[in-house]
Amino acid sequence: MSICGQIIAGQLGKILIREKSGQKIELGDLLVVEDDRGLALIQIHNLYYGSQISQLARELISGVKLEGRGGGLQFLEPQLRNYVIAEGKTVLRISDNISVPKILPDFFNTVRYTTKQDLEFLSVPENPVYMGKIRSGSKIIDIDVYLDGLDAFTHHILIPSTTGRGKSNLVKVMLCSILGQDRFGMLVLDPHDEYYGRSGKGLKDHPKSRQGIRYYSTNPLPGTNTLIINLNSIEPEHFEGILSFTIAQQHAIRLYKSEYGDRWIESIVRGKGVKGVNKVTLSVLQRIIRTSLSIYFDGEEVICENRVFSNSAGEATIHDMVHSIEEGKIVVIDTSKVGDEAELLIGSIIANAILAKYQRYKSEGGLTEKVPVSIVIEEAPRVLGSNKLADLGDNIYSRIAREGRKFKVGLLAITQLASVIPRQVLTNMNTKIILGNEMAPERRALMDSAAQDLSDDDRNIASLDRGEAIVSSIFTKFAVPIKIPLFKDYLENCVQSVNDRPQTVFIG
Ligand SMILES: Nc1ncnc2c1ncn2[C@@H]1O[C@H](COP(=O)(O)OP(=O)(O)OP(=O)(O)O)[C@@H](O)[C@H]1O
Ligand SMILES: [Mg+2]
Fold it and tell me: What global pTM score does this model have?
């Protein structure tokens, strides 16, 4: 086993290792120290030079060399006198059991790279969701990393990174790994229409896609569903925290609801009168509905411009979606052609229906048999952030973030801006799959709310390449560095081994 260094100093949380000459310890490397109590796993978070020669002498020698005066001048035994110091922290102790390190590894012990065998203690989750392989720096160790979906989905997952680092790719890989198992009900709100694979590879190319996915779009592909929702399915509370209404407008909506029942939106749009609502309020409501949902009355009929809402069709859509989710299917909704508010409203209608159902199951004692549900939402600060929308008050998404776990309903929130999500909500997202981020305030927000102490990992996070991530979760013993595969490569593997149960490994 190749020795790469030796412990020369340090303290708990900051072990200093002298690099052996010829080795190249990397930022993020997982190294192993063996002693008579077992193994200690050290993760490197900083690198710097060390030298036995004084700074002045080094400056002089380099000056002589640079100015061409030294001929073949060399340091005396350069590999002994100049070296690299790697700074790391012990993240795990592996002996008969796995524990959080409370003792220092033996002083002056040699350190080596982690091998596959070192990590083979990792156990198998019952409900595996694939994320990638363990990574040491930029080297991949051939151990698959899975989270247990029952725990992770219901306790919420956050996937933060700057744009283009591989968030969507990761979610595709995760969805692909559970597709066809019918163990998790997933609702995917897809504003970029990138998951199903309308153009190019996507979840549709999985061999079990026919049984495992329901795809809804205003522009459906053959064999998929039309996204059309009947206006009667919309309740006033679905707008909570999504659209802003004044007290007078809320009052008016209540009056319309009690006067016209399910046809309340249509009646507002058609300009029907109700006692107690003046014309101005009515026309403001009509304007809000027109700008946010593209629904208006042209004098003869109700027009739904984006074709998502209808006053005549789509009565069963929400029911069918909820049914599929309960059956453990992945319901992907292409919201690329509908506006922001309409997308959030559609999500709100479905999420409300699911949460209400699961709350009922819980009160009736039948929740244990139900599959966990996760709602995938892009640009999560739209509904969770302390920004414009969240100021509108509580919405179904923030309610799920707060209390969904009790009812087996969780969020899988994707974001480029974790820092605008309130600390309390961030902390509630108990699994964070952190991809690269060059913005310091973003990294700080994540480190402050992570399940493990990541205070030394700033450089590690900043230097994450595309597809490299750190999984920090209350369900993992340490923040696990992973390399996520490219979706199309992973898909190919799935196609080849669709009938084999994966060799699963659970970090926990
Ligand atoms: N695991 C990976 N390995 C290698 N390359 C990757 C990986 N994941 C993503 N990429 C590359 O990065 C590109 C962007 O990935 P992706 O669309 O998933 O990023 P994103 O974080 O979702 O971006 P955005 O914030 O814009 O939605 C991909 O097209 C792919 O080429
Ligand atoms: Mg994306």
Answer: 0.92
